[in-house]
Give the backbone structure.
Amino acid sequence: MNKTIINKILITLAFLFAYRVLAYVPIPGVDAEVIKSFFDSNSSNALGLFNMFSGQAVERFSIISLGIMPYITASIVMELLAATFPNLAKMKKERDGMQKYMQIIRYATIAITVVQAISVSVGLKTLEGGYGSAILIDMNTFIAISVFSMLAGTMMLMWIGEQITQRGVGNGISLIIFAGIVAGIPSAIGGTFELINTGEINFLVSILILLIILGTIFIIIYIELAERRIPVSYARKIIMQNQNKRIMNYIPIKLNLSGVIPPIFASAVLIFPSTLLQASSNSVMLAIADFLSPNGYAYNILMFFLVMFFAFFYSSIVFNSKDISENLKRQGGFIPGLRPGEGTANFLNTTASNLTFWGALYLAIISTIPWVILKSAGVPFVFGGTAVLIVVQVAIDTMRRIEAQVYMNKYQTLSATGL
């Protein structure tokens, strides 16, 4: 393997290690044992899901307790605005405009982080009573320290994600979420064995659940690698001119064009209001928070439809049939039986839409159906379909990126030697 790629992998691992270290840096002025007891008893609701995505940083009340979710929420808002306002979409396509676009997302992340940090800090006051006092210093002083610490932690996570994307193997934000989920797997496995030892889960049921999880992983891998290959023909003159270069003779369209984004976006949309509502002491707000609990039907029904929506929405962004048809026409290629230009674009758009429907349905089912099994079996929530889906998808995508960089380096080496 090329030295450059090894360095990128090492840089990625170093930044992920730094992320895990930050998860153990607590915010001053809190009793960590009280907070951990609270989260242990709320592992099946939105707080448990939020804790899972943060890599168990919330139960330690770390400076990265809010995780990368404020950044994802800001990105969702900007993507929706870009799809609504043409000027914003035009800004995103331009090089200088993209920098302004990302700057707006960073400012929005700061605003969302401050709001969530204040809500979480004030919400700790509700722990006084059954769990004991979680705050050990003056409340106003604590809120100021907490908001500053969480804001600094989220900004550091955002910077780490950008560094992994630019200097590492890429896909930094997804890798941070991946690392957070994977970090909780050992404790979840230990909790499952404990449930088996205490008799709360039958051993045969646990074997069945294991087989279902492995089956889910196999299905995810199989579908993630699935693609529709549309044949492309090139004029003989073009082939002769590019005989020393590889010309792809097909257009690959993945069954799941949107990748891991829909379940992440859907989870962020559902976690954000739930986190704010959990911090309230109002009975109506708490009732709504319970209604949106990940262990309830409402959450999973909403999750199903939100994943479908984001799958279609994001696919329309990443797959532009008009640009593909124009590039194909410019290169002298054409799809047999179709007229170059608008006819090709319409065909590609129809094909992508049909594949996206099945891809979106697959994502929605994987994100919600395992919950039915978990609810009946009573296993740790971390084995939910969303967590498995994110872990497997990010792992596959990272392997593809590394493989692509390996081939790119080989191609550059051959070109430099004149072969």
